[in-house]
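Suppose you are handed only these lines of text.
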Amino acid sequence: SSQTEWWKKSVVYQIYPKSFNDTNGDGIGDLPGIIEKLDYLKTLGIDVIWLSPVYDSPQEDNGYDIRDYKKIDDLFGDMNDLERLLEEAHNRDMKLVMDLVVNHTSDEHKWFVESSKSKDNPYRDYYIWKDGKENGEPPTNWNSIFSGSTWEYDERTEQYYLHLFATKQPDLNWENPKLREDIYEMMKFWLDKGMDGFRMDVINFISKDPSYPDGEHGDGSPHFMNGPRIHEFLQEMNEEVLSKYDIMTVGEMPGASPEEAKAYTDPAHDELNMIFTFEHMDLDSENGDKWDVKPLDLVDLKENFEKWQTSLHGVGWNSLYWNNHDQPRIVSRFGNDGEFREKSAKMLATCLHMMQGTPYIYQGEELGMTNVHFDSLDEYRDIELKNMYEEKRALGWSHERIMEAIYIKGRDNARTPMQWDRSENAGFTEGDPWIKVNPGYTHINAEQALGQEDSIFYYYQQLIQLRKEKEVITEGSFELLLREHPQLFAYQRVGDKEDLVVCCNFSDQTVEVPDQDLIQSVKGGEVVITNVDSPERDRLSPYESVVYSIEK
Ligand code: TEU
Ligand code: CA
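From them, the structure of the protein bound to 1-O-alpha-D-glucopyranosyl-D-fructose can be written out as follows.
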């Protein structure tokens, strides 16, 4: 294939367009707003922009419910704006990757409008329709990720259709070769325009167990995650489309293990370049329920990263992320968004960016944006948490407990407007923002960061630059150090010409470095990057991180 693996040395910046920058005063971010900020992104030093969906959509799930794959939603602008964004990004030697949402469409997509008309409509089998059970129950007992059943009954044709997510997000039937061909044609439409690749939404959900069995306690995920034909479909997609372009692909894969990730990302398999795992994002959830929050055990986090780093070394490739539009802000989640906000944000960035893989920075992460705390439910926008509220209330959860879970884990934590400056609405819009701005914008904003020489922004700039300079970061192996230490995350990257030793204090305590070997090994090392003025080799202050280089 014509792939040159350029993405192994790239840093990706994810833009959630609705919340990035509004230029026409409707309170919604738009494509001209992104073009306006390309120089800001170039200053940061990023190589690739991943653009969350801007396609025509009723916005039930903020664009992850697509009505027309080849039309730009009027909210964001038009095709000229998108082509101008692509051109302006390329002019600045940055690449643009689109979000491919092909596990499902909107129920307003013309395919579904046709499919739901009658059982013998030519588009009927573009979606997954089934008779209910004899006893009047839906075809399976699966729970939707957005609460309720994954089946919606349609009176007109007296069948149910499958929707793993919202009712307005019917799942596409990938068993249908005509559907697959239409998807591949659409992908070529975008790649022929010069797009540099795709982030693929829940792409490991597209192959379902054809027998549609019930799940344990309504958990259908063993029957739609990493399904029986998933590798066949991805290899066909690669054969028909991906292999023909020099692009980057990253598959979003809830429930994928390192073993499965090897199968998806081994170049010999001709499938995808890398995947997003969710394992490290589930470590503060009880029984797999993200809303049933438990404190993070740092040893769990360390061993999870070790598993992924060592499993994919030399056979596949990792993505590296703390944040995206579905996750709460990392400085509030695993750092400290109070007195140690700046220091812990830099520590977390160091911990992630010194690993092997392609790092992803989510808009505002480079400013240390924090979680938001709206007082009432109606200030929130996300369908996932609104549906969850009703479901948990019915299960007897108190209002307070649910609101607490929303503060800690809600996706709207990531979706409040990007904070550009301290003017009204953080410079995001002249109008009324579609979602309220996080009140922290008065001291957390890009203008302030650009004016502070030791800001989180400039620290990210250094980390990104290091990746270009030090081959050990992209090529070296990973060895976990101080495995059992409850506060220190320390690891070694072993290269040909140099080793790196990365030490991160995930606590608000000063911590002695217990391991004489570790101290010995960093003794002669030079400090590559740190978030304190003068690191001491045998102890770390609260949220201190330091990276040593040891010449070989
Ligand atoms: O997310 C996949 C997914 O499962 C997430 O919704 C995640 O499990 C959940 O949000 C945990 O909070 C993708 C998109 O990233 C997400 O924005 C969409 O809502 C979803 O698919 C449906 O397209
Ligand atoms: Ca706008």
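What can we learn from it? The longest strand covers residues 498-505. Residues 61, 64, 101, 145, 165, 201-202, 252, 254, 290, 325-326, 384, 411 surround 1-O-alpha-D-glucopyranosyl-D-fructose (ligand 1) (CB under 6 Å).
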